[in-house]
Amino acid sequence: MSKIIRTAAKEPFKPEPDDDLIICRCEEVTKGEIRRAVHGGFRTTNEVKRWLRCGMGLCQGQTCQRNFQNIIAKEAGISVKDLGMISGRSPARPVMIDVFANEVIDAEKDPEGK
Amino acid sequence: MIGAGPAGLSAAVEAAEAGMRVAVFDENAGPGGQLFKQIHKFFGSRDQNAMIRGFQIGRNLLARAEAAGVEVFLNAPVMGIYKNHEVLVKIEDESVHFKGDNIIIAAGAAEVMVPFCGWDLPGVMGAGAAQTLMNRHGVLPGRKVLLVGSGNVGLIVGLQLLQAGCELVAVLDAAPRVGGYGVHAAKIARTGVPFLTSTTILEAKGDGKVEKAVIRKVDSRFQVIPGTERELDVDTILMAVGLSPMTQLASCAGCDVEYSDQTGRLSCITVTDEFCETTVAGIYCCGDFRMETAEGASSAILQGQIAASHIAEQAGYITGEECGARIAKCQETLRQMSGGMFSVKNKGRVDPTETDEGYPISRSLLERGYIAEEELQNYPAASYEAEGVHPVIECVQNIPCNPCRDMCARKCILVNGDITNIPLVDQTKKCVGCGLCVANCPGQSIFLIDKTSIPDYAAVSIPYEFLPLPEEGQKGTGLDRSGAPVCDALVMSVKTSPAMDKTAVLTMKVPLKYADSVRFFKAEGGAE
């Protein structure tokens, strides 16, 4: 992604009959919330994610990313290609915090580690 | 190696056999990725695992990996990839750091879901998820199933649903044609399942679970046609509308990930070169995770070999010459397998009119999932007459597959030139009716017909993969290609043998005039 297209919404937010449709199942974010976020000025995938938590649940956006991107793109009148992708971050899988903190450095490479 | 599926395991084998030290991490409890739930026989050529059931391909790969000394860590999800090829893996209650000179990410893909009203009701799931439930856990996903999407994944799962004893109410596709191989569709259609093309799901209804599905027609531009809504009584809706690579780890590692339409539709892919190397040196990705070709596990295996050969050469374990030869061989096979009307480059080509050989395309196969009887005359191997028993081959699309040719000891069947060419019958060779072609055709599109041995009757032999197996002397109904009842049928024999690998060849006696119509057997009492 090279640029963020940040133009004002052409029209004010208009409710739609399926605004209560759940798009992100893990975090229970609805289509209406995503549309409102776009009208509120959010444009990129990561902006909307941070504002609403869609894509931050168990599946880490694997199921919903494309679906909420489509809504952003349609609402903002731009291409999905221009929205950027959810940044991949560790931990890429759900993990208990005590396991995540229980680090083991490869003993062969770093005998003094841990 | 991240992921112990077909790509990861084949890469591991290739690298380990070259002398490299390999560790494979997989988050699942068992290795093999999706291979161990693939119970169908694979397409392709003999040296590319054709005719072998997916789980057996997995077992073979795993045995080779073990023999080559590959270390496989299971229940070991990779949580992150950092600078300098450092990988963080959860192993039991520890977060363990590993470093590799090279990393291959073969993390696979996840099923695409399309939101519609009620899609979050229990009973809506991915077709692949249903396949896991059935084939790995022995759990029926539901009783009355609607399948949305008619690509190969959907069609393969559809047949397996029937084999598991589910009722498949219909197969929908928003496109005006069946997306996957016609031979896969025909297996389902001949049991009586309707294909509804240009149709999409509107809503799942139910109190706390799926009880009904509302569907409706769309036009050629996928616009809804008002007033075409229909309700179907179903308890399960399976979505088979595509796969999307799991790119998080590549993104985490700093590899370029982008939306691309190189696969014919916009999907998120990791950018790689011809050796599967990403934009970060020493990090490779292959398989569904890379998603350049649509041939699933077989492509994944080849890509794994390409990536591993390249790594082995870079690290000095094999010579440049050896590496070049291996990669060229894999690429040639990939090229062959990605030919034909279902190739990535031809995907989305809305209206092919003829096959590579110049035969007219079967419109009925594309629109309804079975070949119309009047279309058969267009295909020489499907419509010739002969004395005694002879194979009739209803394989009429250019798909990469040729085991029928290799199975026939009498050399009755020819697949000339490219592997995607349509099989032909050499009528100068005499068929002995062994049935190996019938049982081993992964598309189950070969039948043995004998119109001359019994007066006024014909013997029709079909591939049969349902339990309980009918018995000799059992009465039932002969169904046509659409699953419509045609006539009474009497089972003359049910042949099984190790060489048929659990596909029975059922021979039934039907009145002579129905010899070209009957293609399935339904036992009396309704069992399929």
Describe this structure in words.
The complex is a heterodimer of chains A (114) and B (528). In chain A, 30% of the residues lie in helices and 6% in strands. By secondary structure, chain A is mainly alpha-helical. Chain A has a domain at 22-83: BFD-like [2Fe-2S]-binding domain (Arc Repressor Mutant, subunit A), CATH 1.10.10.1100. In chain A, helix 1 crosses helix 3. Chain B is of the alpha+beta class and 528 residues long. In chain B, strand 23 and strand 24 form a beta hairpin. Chain B has helices at residues 6-17, 54-67, 127-137, 152-164, 182-189, 248-252, 296-314, 320-337, 363-368, 380-383, 403-407, 436-440, and strands at residues 23-25, 71-73, 78-82, 86-91, 94-99, 103-105, 109-111, 124-126, 144-148, 167-173, 195-197, 199-205, 212-217, 230-233, 236-239, 243-245, 257-260, 267-270, 283-285, 389-393, 413-414, 424-425, 446-454, 457-464, 475-479, 485-495, 504-511, 520-523. The radius of gyration of chain B is 24 Å and the shape is globular. In chain B, 54% of the residues are buried. The interface between A and B is large, with 37 and 40 residues. Strand 3 of chain A pairs parallel with strand 5 of chain B.
Secondary structure layout plus pairing:
The complex is a heterodimer of chains A (114) and B (528).
Chain A: E1 22-24, E2 29-30, H1 31-39, H2 45-52, H3 65-76, H4 97-101, E3 103-104
Antiparallel strand pairs in A: 1-2
Chain B: H1 6-17, E1 23-25, H2 54-67, E2 71-73, E3 78-82, E4 86-91, E5 94-99, E6 103-105, E7 109-111, E8 124-126, H3 127-137, E9 144-148, H4 152-164, E10 167-173, H5 182-189, E11 195-197, E12 199-205, E13 212-217, E14 230-233, E15 236-239, E16 243-245, H6 248-252, E17 257-260, E18 267-270, E19 283-285, H7 296-314, H8 320-337, H9 363-368, H10 380-383, E20 389-393, H11 403-407, E21 413-414, E22 424-425, H12 436-440, E23 446-454, E24 457-464, E25 475-479, E26 485-495, E27 504-511, E28 520-523
Helix pairs in contact in B: 1-2, 1-7, 3-4, 4-5, 7-8
